[in-house]
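Blinded run. Sample ID left blank on purpose so nobody reads anything into the name before looking at the predicted structure. Input follows.
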Amino acid sequence: MVTVLPHQFSGVYTIKDDERTSLCTESIAPGISVYGEKLISYEEKEYRIWSTRRSKLSAAIRNGLSEMPIQPGSQILYLGAASGTTVSHCSDIVSKNGIVYAVEFSERTARELIHLAANRPNIIPIVEDARHPTRYASVVAGPIDVVYQDVAQPNQATILYENLKTFSSFGAWGMLAIKARSIDSASDLDEIYSKEIATLDNFGLQVVDNIDLSPLEKDHRFIVCRVTEELT
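Blinded prediction complete.
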């Protein structure tokens, strides 16, 4: 027997059957599986299983995330959208009153993102380089509530900060999947994480969550931070 229950985070659900418990979101595009995920019908609604192996945000929730800034109605700037796996679940969560500006640098990968957006009007795909937020500033109708960053670049904390500074103000949130081996292929993992967190602190961002994503993701930490002073 399948049961779907609200999670502690608004817009996220827990689905239980006789074998397992999984995270899921209520689909705003029923009948469409984005990346092969299972679709579940329950009480006249459709839910999409949210894989913890395919989404760092789902993995962070599973591993004990305490703050979830992405909520129904949120305005999200998603950096490193790829083909849209996690973007699609963010789209479900923010629902029809929210919006996800999805930035992806690779034109080839962005084709899938654009295809995804065709069925989800709350996703605005942007084919650009997340290191240069002024290039897409005319497309983003801010202010942005949450900047989510999953970019495989050495200066990950700086990229997050520059986008927050461009599109957000006091009280906004940043969410960062730190890919340690994209920053440094040889140094101690804890040193890499500590350096990136110190960079966020120096920029005036208050870190409120620091989640190890293992064993779901190797060499990754998930950071949630907040703008608590004017960004300059």
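Unblinding after everyone has recorded impressions. The chain has two domains: 3-51, 57-227.
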